[in-house]
Amino acid sequence: MATSSTEFKEYDQAQYWVAPARNFRSSARLHLQHFLVQNTLGYLLEPAVEKSVAGFQQLKVADLACGNGVWLTELHSHLAKNNTIAQLDGFDINPVNFPDPAFLPSGMTLKKVDILAGSLPAELKGVYDVVHIRAFDSVIRNAEALKPVLTITMELLKPGGFLQWEEMRGDSWIIDSPSPQTSKEACNIIANVLKGAVRAQGIQKDWVDVLDTHLAASGFQNTRLLVQEKRKQDFKGWTEDYLMVWEEITDLFSPKATSPDAPMTRETWVDLFAKGVKETEQGVVVHQGRIMTAIGQKPL
Hints:
By secondary structure, this protein is an alpha/beta fold. It has a single domain, classed as 3-Layer(aba) Sandwich (Rossmann fold), CATH 3.40.50. Helices cover 35% and strands 20% of the residues. The chain has 9 helices and 9 strands. The strands form 2 sheets. Strands 3-2-1-4-5-9-7 form a 7-stranded mixed sheet, sandwiched between helices. The longest helix is centred in the N-terminal third of the chain and has 18 residues. The N terminus is likely disordered. This is Methyltransferase domain-containing protein.
């Protein structure tokens, strides 16, 4: 199905991620996504990174675009088992999904910070042993937009500190059917609409496949890229996670009343989404294949 830029509103990440719609449903999806990623990776801190920081008197970790802070709360539990004392700080542009401080573990804070807004506060520079980023591709339009993120990350880290960045390609939708007799037509159309909208807006995600090279070009040392395939037993969970994403973006389509000639109106999208849900109830799955983890170290 063909797409054009007229059927999909211009995506402005600065507005989209702070909109009122990013509420408890988004937070529930982020919890699900976290545990699905953990099922794939099998670690919170990449093993070589964890080994390098083992024994630190007080480990300091920052999580950028932390969402509801679930990665940090799970990391706290993991470190506590090893009697590791840590300062864990989460930063996000939208605090609506932050747990109240009364319910956070000791040594953990969550703060509203737009890391792309400009220079960092002086008290955050050169503080962290590890900076963690996950699923940030939704706010990065192309490889050029990586530069400010990597610059800020470098500023946050202590000399010798590590960046651990886990990412999936947001322009890659894999639709699998359990049998040739089970239709996946609606889900395929949805995937093609989204891919077309991404292309029409000039958004490029190929940087994800070579994220380690971008780290190296920004001055990080000992860079490497780990690629792990998603487990098929998790495909249903991933499908439900992505169905929530597809439902969330409904408002990016204009209603028929205002754009009657658009190839994809909001009403058409809602109908198509309902058909896609029906297909998943018959066993069709939606996933993105694999997760890339890029590791880099700030020079001493």
